């Protein structure tokens, strides 16, 4: 039994460290096994520099056919689980074929790396960045170790940010107008607006405002759309009178938002909507939905 355990034990320890790991901001990342780990945060065009440490653990020499490290940006669609689509792939050869007798350290550097898409872990899709170390071997499987890191990219405030004005009506029964001060919001912004009642001839029970995320993955017959309600706020309770206006003040920071992602590598999109819901006394629901754009602002 002990022999079998030893047969499947990895013959060396591999660790990847970042040169500025102690000073760089760390963010939580949820792994496939459900555990959350802290990993370093980068943005596009940064240098990714560090060391790979390889240490044999059996006390015997370890023969290999070379060592390399890859920087990979990958998209995995969950209906096609196990197939990774690489949109970024850089390689550095660390060692030529030889043998390990004791611990060896290899420095590596990837300069001004183009990382155009943000890390994302959604309902049906995952976009991730990893450093992948591979020790190639003859006759037996290669030894592989992966180190995740997270990428977030920042956007300057938009030069044009128009307000949203829309009307909702049910003929001869209900007519309302709603207005939001702008259509583009950063992740910790506040949605400000007003709702005007011009005609009310039905008994209203309540009015709610929802923030919804719509994730679209795949294409053609393999298109999957998942809509999540991230937050729901009650704006009004009871029936308003004609001429009444209801203020809207909605803080986005408690919601776990990402920026809007449009057609990422032709694999997925993530959009956000404000959904106004009116409920009458017979529990009939009336909806009016409006897309908003969410972006990541560099915080001072």
Give descriptors for this structure:
mainly beta, 1 helix, elongated, 22 strands, six-stranded mixed β-sheet, disordered N terminus, 2% helix, 300 residues, seven-stranded mixed β-sheet, single chain
Structure, described:
The chain contains one helix and 22 strands. The chain has one helix spanning 2-7; strands at residues 12-18, 26-30, 36-42, 48-56, 62-64, 67-77, 84-95, 98-100, 104-110, 120-121, 125-135, 143-151, 164-170, 174-180, 184-186, 190-200, 204-217, 224-237, 245-251, 261-264, 268-280, 285-295. The protein is an all-beta fold and 300 residues long. 16% of the residues are buried. The strands form five sheets. Strands 2, 3, 6, 7, 10, 11 and 12 form a seven-stranded mixed beta sheet that branches. Helices cover 2% and strands 59% of the residues.
By DSSP, the count of extended strands is 22
Question: Main beta sheet: strand number and arrangement?
Answer: 7 strands, mixed
- Name the poorly predicted regions: 1-6
Number of helices: 1
What level of helicity do the residues show? under 10%
Strand portion: over 45%
If you compute it from the alpha carbons, what radius of gyration comes out, rounded to the nearest whole angstrom?
A: 26 Å
Please state the structural category: mainly beta
In round numbers, the mean pLDDT is 88
- Order of secondary-structure elements: HEEEEEEEEEEEEEEEEEEEEEE
CA-CA gap between termini: 58 Å
General form: elongated
